[in-house]
UniProtKB/TrEMBL annotation, chain A:
It holds the Pfam family Rhodanese. CDD domains: RHOD. This is Rhodanese-like domain-containing protein. GO terms for molecular function: thiosulfate-cyanide sulfurtransferase activity. InterPro entries: Rhodanese-like_dom (IPR001763), Rhodanese-like_dom_sf (IPR036873). It comes from the Bacteria.
TrEMBL record, chain B:
Signal peptide: none annotated. The keyword Cell inner membrane applies. This is YeeE/YedE family protein. It is a multi-pass membrane protein. Its main location: membrane. The chain crosses the membrane at residues 12-33, 77-99, 119-136, 148-173.
TrEMBL record, chain C:
Pfam families: Sulf_transp. InterPro entries: Sulf_transp_TsuA/YedE. The chain crosses the membrane at residues 12-30, 51-70, 82-109, 121-144, 164-187. Keywords: Membrane, Transmembrane, Transmembrane helix. The keyword Transmembrane applies. The lineage of its organism: Bacteria, Pseudomonadati, Bacteroidota, Bacteroidia, Marinilabiliales. This is YeeE/YedE family protein. The keyword Transmembrane helix applies.
């Protein structure tokens, strides 16, 4: 009997002391710098204005547009259905719950794509998947969707198809604008991630 | 006397270290599944709030302590700990049946006190424990065991306070037990 | 991944089923270890039966060390589990009251339930006492409402208050517990030699 207890004592000691050598993963939700670099150098995070326009027109339920500009700029003009989370408030309570919902593509929008890109890097560092950047931002949106330029007559047919789509989108967005000014009253319907509750307890 | 001796030598209980390991694993499982530890006194608290609410709903609601456990949606009995404690009763019965310890009502008492005195002491001890468990935010299982296992400062404080006091005052109550 | 229910891996509807199942296991282990007898429990304070100390501290170190491994493997996120809030003075006072209640009553709440299950009258009376104590507390609550919420340190852990990483605490508790197991083995032998009457 005593011999068994000696074994058990040693086993428990070894197990306990073993915990001292567990490499601390204090920041388990952050991804490694190498991975982050891999992601940054790949252009797959960009989504073009045309793709965004198409998704809005089709009413794609998986699209969540997040406008990362300051609230004042958002008030002035914003894409219909976009949600305003200024970059400064990204880490504020509850805002992160919008990201990382399975099946939802979050597209960051700013005037150019720098601010949106910064937001994207932040979310990547937090280990959140499914976030994208609208290439060229709202400036590009203006040039391509709201005021598309006609391609030359000898341009490839793809360009003409694209132009035709953009023209249609232009009517969709500007026409919608005159009906409901600036899409201001558009109800933003978003799914939030289930809150990861800290369990309550008590004896 | 001889039979008593053999009882000391061969109790019909499982090895305490085996029990401890199982209990430790159970706490791990509980935390893994529910995110919190085990408890017991909370169930009695729910019972107190429930009966009080049935007898005098207005006064219960006005009571600052009990009032916070009332909810419009469901009875105060509808809590995790009540169901868990129900399980404790079933589990205890199960083990009692398996090891042949379920018998008609009987009382454990020290050799120097009567059954009546033991029962009075049990009520007093229970009342003190109930009172203390509210201040301590839990009893031995909820605060001391589950709390300390999760490295909570409060759990360690309660654990040392309970056992420290127990040893400190044990001498004065020795007549009750030995 | 874990904890499962707070993270929504297991739906809320299963909550109470799981509660009962975990309770059954809890009750079974307590009863099978001998916690349904007040004489066994009180023995820890008089040196004739250290079953409480053995079960309690074995469970404690197994759970502590296990939690650290669970966290390391990624099964559990330690930041998501419930940490008992700390109210410094009320907890010390509460612990002292519970300590006295333990020696007088010979049970603690969880163990008294298992005692009732197998037909111990003193366990039943202890539970009645528990009920009265908590009821009395509720009635008298206005008197010490301020004291009850004083010394609030929030849901702090040992690590936060001392700055020492968790594994050191786990090792410290393990070493102390193992030493206590060996020490009490000899104490128990000596005390039991002098005991005339003791039934389990």
């Amino acid at each position: 009997m005593n011999r068994n207890y000696i074994f058990l004592t040693i086993l428990m000691l070894v197990l306990a002391i073993g915990t001292l050598f567990l490499t601390g993963n204090d920041e388990p939700t952050q991804i490694a710098p190498e991975e982050l670099l891999q992601e940054i150098i790949q252009p797959t995070r960009y989504i073009t204005t045309d793709q965004v326009a198409k998704m809005i027109i089709q009413g794609d339920p998986s699209l969540l547009m997040v406008d990362v500009r300051p609230a004042a700029e958002y008030e002035e003009f914003a894409l219909p259905g976009s949600l305003n989370i200024p970059l400064e408030q990204l880490l504020n309570d509850g805002n992160l719950a919008y990201f990382g919902v399975p099946g939802i593509r979050v597209v960051f929008i700013s005037n150019d794509d720098i601010r949106a890109d910064q937001t994207w890097v932040l979310t990547k560092r937090l280990g959140i998947d499914g976030t994208y950047v609208m290439k060229g931002g709202l400036n590009s949106w203006m040039q391509t969707i709201i005021d598309p330029s006609q391609p030359n007559a000898d341009a490839p047919s793809v360009d003409h198809q694209l132009y035709a789509f953009r023209k249609g989108a232009q009517i969709y967005f500007t026409g919608a604008e005159s009906a409901a000014p600036d899409g201001e009253n558009v109800e933003v319907q978003v799914r939030r991630r289930e809150k990861t509750n800290v369990a309550a307890g008590g004896c | 006397m001889i039979s008593d001796k053999t009882n000391i030598e061969k109790p019909k209980y499982i090895n305490p270290y085996l029990g401890g390991v199982l209990l430790g694993l159970l706490i791990l499982a509980t935390i893994y599944i529910t995110g919190r530890g085990l408890g017991a006194s909370g169930a009695i608290k729910s019972a107190v709030v429930t009966t009080s609410n049935t007898v005098a709903p207005k006064a219960t609601e006005a009571n600052h302590y009990m009032g916070q456990f009332l909810s419009d949606d469901h009875s105060p009995m509808y809590t995790w700990l009540v169901f868990e404690s129900l399980g404790v009763l079933i589990g205890g019965l199960l083990s009692g049946i398996i090891f042949g310890r379920v018998k008609k009502w009987r009382t454990d008492h020290g050799p120097r006190i009567t059954i009546k005195k033991r029962l009075i002491l049990a009520v007093i001890g229970g009342a003190l424990f109930g009172l203390g468990s509210q201040f301590g935010r839990g009893c031995t299982s909820g605060a001391a065991l589950s709390g300390t296992a999760t490295f909570a400062l409060g759990g360690v404080i309660v654990m040392f306070a309970i056992f420290g006091t127990g040893y400190a005052v044990a001498y004065f109550f020795r007549k009750f037990w030995i | 991944m874990g904890p499962l229910i707070p993270n929504g891996v297991i739906g809320g509807g299963w909550d109470f089923v799981i509660a009962i199942l975990l309770g059954v296991a809890f009750g079974f282990i307590l009863e099978a270890s001998g916690f349904s007898s007040s004489r066994n429990l009180a023995g820890v304070f008089y040196g004739y039966n250290f079953v409480v100390l053995r079960v309690f501290f074995t469970a404690l170190i197994v759970a502590m060390v296990g939690l650290l491994y669970f966290d390391y493997v990624g099964w559990l996120n330690l930041s998501q589990i419930f940490i008992l809030p700390t109210f410094l003075t009320p907890m010390i006072v509460g612990g002292i009251i519970m300590g006295v209640g333990f020696v007088i009553g010979g049970f603690c709440p969880g163990t008294s339930f298992t005692g009732i299950a197998i037909g111990k009258l003193d366990a039943l009376f202890f539970t009645i006492g528990l009920y009265l104590g908590i009821f009395g507390f509720s009635l008298a609550y206005p008197l010490f409402e301020n004291f009850f919420t004083s010394g609030d340190l929030g849901n702090v852990t040992l690590m936060e208050i001392t700055g020492i990483p968790a594994p050191y605490f786990a090792v410290a508790f393990t070493v102390v517990a193992l030493a206590a197991f060996w020490g009490t083995m000899f104490i128990e032998k000596r005390v039991r030699k002098n005991m005339k009457q003791y039934k389990f």
